[in-house]
Design brief:
With 140 residues, the chain is an all-alpha fold. The chain is 70% helix and 0% strand. The longest helix is centred in the C-terminal third of the chain and has 19 residues. It is globular and about 35 Å long.
Length: 140
């Protein structure tokens, strides 16, 4: 189920989370390099940005400093195709396990869902309502 959050998450939070989680540099992420982990990170950012931000493909391309949105659409489609193919998903999940041993044994789809949940939890904690909720639970 792909339910959008009540309040869209800022793109910069999605990018920062994935770049940090996969241990790639922002330069590699924004560059034109074809290193498998950088390509996977770009795909994950596009996929998650479409799911939990209010940005369109052209807006995501601008945020990613891409010349046009066709590469962003291709990246999104590629990740969707990988998520549907168990063998390809397992191969790509291994790229992530190298950086995050705690996700070993998870499929790429499960890793993407976990990233999504963690980004949403981080954003809620960073929002004024989330902070107020934390303060109220600390008082109780």
């Amino acid at each position: 189920m792909n339910i959008k959050p009540i309040r869209p998450v800022p793109y910069r939070i999605v990018e920062a989370f994935v770049v940090e989680a996969l241990n790639i540099t922002p330069e590699d992420f924004r560059g034109k390099g074809r290193h498998p982990r950088a390509v996977l990170a770009r795909g994950m950012v596009v996929y998650l940005a479409r799911a939990i931000t209010s940005l369109s493909f052209p807006q995501i391309a601008v945020a990613m400093i891409r010349p046009n949105h066709s590469s962003v659409i291709a990246s999104h489609s590629r990740l969707q195709r990988i998520l549907r193919d168990p063998q390809s998903s397992a191969e790509n999940a291994r790229l992530i396990v190298e950086q995050l041993p705690e996700v070993e044994g998870l499929t790429l789809g499960e890793i993407v869902r976990r990233f999504r949940a963690e980004i949403l939890a981080h954003d809620e904690a960073a929002s004024p309502f989330g902070l107020r909720k934390q303060r109220l639970s600390a008082v109780a």
